[in-house]
Amino acid sequence: MELRAATAHDAEVIAGLHADSWRRNYRGAFLDSFLDGDVFADRVTVWRERLAKPDPAAFTIVADHDGDVVGFSYTKLDDDPRWGALLDNLHVTHARKRGGIGTRLVAETARELRARAPESGLYLFVLAQNTAAQAFYAARGGVEVDRTVRGPFPGGGTAPSLRIAWPDPSVLLTPD
């Protein structure tokens, strides 16, 4: 498996992976009408825009296995003055979960963050209902630092969420 920077050619496959992950994990937070309807079209629009004109204050990493994107992360630098960079998306193909891809993606995210903003912390929001993701982040040193209701999400809906932070993202680094 190769970790690499996403390109504009990855937009549709990332959108498909993103939409599938939302459909599987975000029911009850996002509106069912959105998840069962326009979620893929919404994500294609977002990812085409993000990858056609990359923001220098953000980066997207894909996990590529034999030419197939099996996971991705998207990070916004300097998103919060206290917590630092926002790991806004981390998704792995459902069939490949629990195979180390997420761990490798967060490690590469931390490595890239250190190169671009060495003093930055890293944080994310996870839905309170997504206990599997919470366990994943806790096992990698993430600490819950805040609880809030987030939204409205694309398509509508709100949900309780936790802010998970790594004041020192180097704890996410794994040997190469």
What is the strand and helix layout of this fold?
Elements: E1 2-5, H1 11-25, H2 32-35, H3 39-52, E2 58-65, E3 68-80, E4 84-92, H4 101-116, E5 122-127, H5 131-139, E6 143-150, E7 159-166
Parallel strand pairs: 4-5
Antiparallel strand pairs: 1-2, 2-3, 3-4, 5-7, 6-7
Which key terms come to mind for this protein?
alpha+beta; Aminopeptidase; seven-stranded mixed beta sheet; 7 strands
What would you say this structure looks like, in words?
The protein has a single domain, classed as Gcn5-related N-acetyltransferase (GNAT) (Aminopeptidase). Helix content is 33%, strand content 32%. The chain contains 5 helices and 7 strands; from the N terminus they run βαααβββαβαββ. It has helices spanning 11-25, 32-35, 39-52, 101-116, 131-139, and strands at residues 2-5, 58-65, 68-80, 84-92, 122-127, 143-150, 159-166. A 7-stranded mixed sheet has the order 1-2-3-4-5-7-6, with helices on both faces. Strand 6 (143-150) and strand 7 form a beta hairpin. The longest helix has 16 residues, at 101-116. It is globular. It starts with a strand and ends in a 10-residue tail after the last strand.
